[in-house]
C-alpha cells in the first residue's frame, strides 16, 4: 500500500496471496483486511480464483499415444518443437514480462 491510498490495490493483494510481501508489509495488509470488509471480500475472491485455477488440467494436449497414432512424423516433430518452447522457464523472458507488469 502506498501512503496516498487507503486500500491495498489488487497487485498488493495478489502479492500477499503469493507470499511475495515482506513480513512487515504482509502484517500491515492483513491487519487492513481484518477491518475492511471490501478489501477482505476482494482478497477472498482472489483466493477462490487461484483455487479454481489450480484445479484446472495442467495440459489440454491429448496423450502422447493419441498423437503418435494420428499424426505423420513431421507433425510429431512440430509438436515436440512447440512443446519444447512452451515448457521453457519464463526466467529468460522476465525483462519482457516486467514491461507489461511494472
Overview of this protein structure:
The chain has 102 residues and is mainly alpha-helical. The protein has 2 domains: 45 residues, no CATH class; 38 residues, no CATH class. It is built from 6 helices and no strands. Helix 1 crosses helix 3 and helix 2 crosses helix 3. The C terminus is likely disordered.
In short:
With 102 residues, the protein is mainly α.
Provide the domain count: 2
The total count of strands amounts to 0
- What is the count of DSSP helices, taking H or I runs of 4+ residues? 6
Termini Cα gap: 15 Å
Q: Secondary-structure element sequence?
A: HHHHHH
- Percent strand: under 5%
Largest sheet: none
Q: Mind sketching the topology for me?
A:
Layout: H1 10-18, H2 23-35, H3 37-54, H4 64-70, H5 73-86, H6 94-101
Give descriptors for this structure.
disordered C terminus, mainly alpha, 102 residues, 68% helix, single chain, 6 helices
Amino acid at each position: 500500500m502506498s501512503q496516498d491510498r487507503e486500500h491495498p490495490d489488487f497487485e498488493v493483494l495478489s502479492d500477499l496471496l503469493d507470499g511475495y510481501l515482506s513480513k512487515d508489509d504482509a502484517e500491515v495488509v492483513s491487519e487492513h483486511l481484518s477491518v475492511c470488509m471490501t478489501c477482505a471480500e476482494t482478497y477472498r475472491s482472489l483466493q477462490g480464483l487461484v483455487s479454481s485455477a489450480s484445479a484446472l488440467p495442467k495440459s489440454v494436449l491429448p496423450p502422447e499415444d493419441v498423437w503418435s497414432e494420428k499424426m505423420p512424423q513431421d507433425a510429431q516433430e512440430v509438436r515436440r518443437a512447440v512443446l519444447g518452447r512452451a515448457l521453457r522457464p519464463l526466467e529468460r523472458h522476465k525483462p519482457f514480462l516486467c514491461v507489461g507488469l511494472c
